[in-house]
Amino acid sequence: RPAGEPRVPYFFARQGAVVDLLDYLGEQYAAEMWALHAEEAIATGLFGPMPHLPELRQRIGDVVAVMRADYTYKLAGDVERAFLGTHGSLSPDEMEIAWLARRLDR
């Protein structure tokens, strides 16, 4: 079971099998996700600008999957939940966030 969330799961490969995992995800799920080596995901700015917490690298595993369109990562037996939407990936609906501020000292 990957860590992360349904729109951006983090995979931990068996020792020495990172390339095999990247190849497998790329071959089997190219239409549903981008599979990136964790170092590539960090370098592309997926987790924001540097500096990051030292724990980031170990938390995101070896492969970061970024789901395309409205796909989510689920395992057989996962409970289906009715949400209006999900967050975490790179669609405009997930990246464009309304923001409102109000001063509380007046």
Question: Can you describe this structure?
Answer:
- The chain is an alpha+beta fold and 106 residues long.
- 24% of the residues lie in helices and 16% in strands.
- It has a four-stranded antiparallel beta sheet with strand order 1-2-4-3.
- Strand 1 and strand 2 form a beta hairpin.
- It is globular.
- The N and C termini lie far apart (49 Å).
- The mean pLDDT is 87.
For the biggest β-sheet, the strand order reads 1-2-4-3
The DSSP helix count reads 4
Q: In angstroms, what is the radius of gyration?
A: 16 Å
Q: Summarize model confidence as the mean pLDDT.
A: 87
User: Would you state the CATH class?
Assistant: Alpha Beta
What does the main sheet amount to? 4 strands, antiparallel
Number of domains: 1
Approximate helicity band: 10-25%
Shape from CA axes? globular
Distance between termini?
49 Å
Share in β-strands: 15-25%
Question: How many strand segments?
Answer: 4
Q: What's the quaternary structure here? A: single chain
| CATH domain topology | Gyrase A, domain 2
- Class of secondary structure makeup: alpha+beta
CATH architecture descriptor: 2-Layer Sandwich
Order of helices and strands: EEHEHHEH
Summarize it.
By secondary structure, the chain is of the alpha+beta class. The chain has one domain (3-95): Gyrase A, domain 2 (2-Layer Sandwich), CATH 3.30.1360.
